[in-house]
Amino acid sequence: MLPLVLYDIISNLPGNQFSPNPAKPRFVLSYKDIPFVTIWVEYSDIHIAMKSIGAKPIKRPNGSDVCTVPVLSDPNTGALITDSLEIASYLEKTYPEKPVFPNNSEPLIRAFDSAFMSLILPSIKPLFQRSMEIMSPTSAKFFIGTRSVDVPLPWDVNFDADWKLLEKAYNTLYEWYQKTDGKWIMGDTFSYPDIVIACQVLWYKRVLKEDEWARISSWNGGKWVQLLADAEKECKLA
Ligand SMILES: N[C@@H](CCC(=O)N[C@@H](CS)C(=O)NCC(=O)O)C(=O)O
Questions:
Q1: Which range has the worst mean pLDDT, 62-66, 178-182, 192-196?
Q2: What domain range includes position 17?
Q3: Ligand 1 center to 151 CA (angstroms)
Q4: What's the rounded Cα separation, in Å, for the pair 215 and 220?
Q5: Residue 232 — φ and ψ, nearest 5°?
Q6: Quick one: pLDDT band at residue 22, thresholds 50, 70, 90?
Q7: Residues 77-113: pLDDT tens digits?
Q8: What's the total number of domains in the chain?
Q9: Ligand 1, CB cutoff 6 Å, lining residues
Q10: What is the DSSP letter of 187?
């Protein structure tokens, strides 16, 4: 089997990885024992680099086309897939062993993915601020320019209110997890929503300052740090 190719975002951090969307396919590939290599792309070059390999664009809020990462190229089938959820869906259909959508749960997982994004989006500003700080100056400028269209500046004020909002979102998530008996959202069965949440927490861990990360680590009895550690172990990434 030829290794698949995952396009992810470069950063100033050792090992590069920070962005939650490309992290999701990384976890899925690793969980399914599928060989892959990563190509690291400068944030400001994503559109041009992904367009040049023929990736499908999505619409920005202003209606213009934009190519995003993650993109996955599978030389075994010729597939070129954009969007973390579509990549997970493709991998599940093409490589069904070790399912991440167990028991025909893909429709419900798609609903979860959208509900989770809506839950955390209102408190995204501090994360955008910290992400921009670990990019090259050119990418940081580009990131502010494009992301501030749907998440208006300033990102660095009102930190406390944003943290409270984020904590509230995780309290809701914690209530969902409390409805099952095991450590995963489907009880003893590991699945894609656990990956989605773990990748979000990984983002926080990678970009936040120590005191900010300590704050998140303390929420819900350490549930989120533990979930990240468990998911990394399950996906053989730790
Ligand atoms: N829903 C998409 C979101 C992808 C996305 O927004 N990717 C960002 C990086 S995390 C991007 O490539 N942005 C490029 C740009 O704004 O020019 C997914 O889950 O893959």
A1: 62-66
A2: 4-94
A3: 14
A4: 11
A5: -60, -40
A6: very high
A7: 999 999 999 999 999 999 999 999 999 999 999 999 9
A8: 2
A9: 19, 21, 46-47, 66, 68-70, 83-85, 146
A10: B
